[in-house]
Amino acid sequence: MSAHHSAHHSTDRSRRRTVLGALTAACALVLGATGCAATTSSAAAEPSRQATPHSSAAPGRTAPAVPEPAALAGARVNVGEGATVGVGMPISVTFPRPVPPAQRAAVEHWLTVGTEPAVSGAWSWVKDRNLLDGQRVDYRPPAYWKPGTRVTLRVGTHAVRHFAVGRSLTATVDVRRHTMTVTEDGRPVTRVPVTAGRPGLDTWNGTMVVMDKQPKVYMDSRTVGLGDAYHGYYAWAVHVTTSGTYVHQNPNADTYAGRSNVTHGCVGLATDGTAERFYRRVIPGDVIRVTGSLETVEAGNGYGDWNLTWSQWLAHSASKA
């Protein structure tokens, strides 16, 4: 089975193909096995904390000459203080209300990023799946972060975040060969059989990033217009899109992994310990690449930022930095 979100993303593309009806309202994410359901922004995490001095803070840009935008006071940051993330994690900042186009360059200038060692990067305004235009801006380098990089984000005068980039992990799902190859620090460490989205409910193609993970997620197909196709708890759920794509344990994988694609859009792993081992290996920010499928996931459907070229990324920057 797949999460509500997976079904949600599959339903989106099915609606475009006039195969499925319109989606119903998204459900709320709860602990459970392979499930769906968050209606929160993929970028919104914990509220910003008050900025405090930190001895290891990386240098940022000097304060801009433009006044500090009021929008920064209510900003939320996706990475927690002191976190260790995978090499694909963008910095994502969301706002309670859309930032007008005329103020976006000032917002970018007051969102300062310092790194050790030095890494170039840029802000880009992303249309989040669950938010309005102007409510989300992300920061990423031209290529994935290098392992060991230490990052400091300053949200104007309001907040600070320090986080580190851990080891590099990329899981590549080949939906035609029904396999997932996990690579750590450039070295393939394992290849496992999988089952992906069935025809018409295909798994998103392209690069995604682990948003979060839960030991169990509850999924209910009725919330996304798929009738009684599935409902219940699914285990070892690694969340990779806001629309509900997960890599998770799926009993159907015991029969079909490595042979055919039978899910509602998620990537299913067998119950023999394969799903749990993958779950325990990954952290938020790790990269999940899907090849051989159809439509590419959008930048704002989770952290699909890496599906844009660097020139495309800069085209959505208000300051063109």
Automatic annotation (TrEMBL):
Keywords: Acyltransferase, Cell shape, Cell wall biogenesis/degradation, Peptidoglycan synthesis, Signal, Transferase. The active site is at 248 (proton donor/acceptor), 266 (nucleophile). Pathway: Cell wall biogenesis; peptidoglycan biosynthesis. Residues 1-37 form the signal peptide. Residues 41-66 are annotated as: Disordered. It holds the Pfam family YkuD. It comes from the Bacteria. CDD domains: YkuD_like. Residues 169-291 form the L,D-TPase catalytic domain. This is L,D-transpeptidase. The lineage of its organism: Bacteria, Bacillati, Actinomycetota, Actinomycetes, Kitasatosporales.
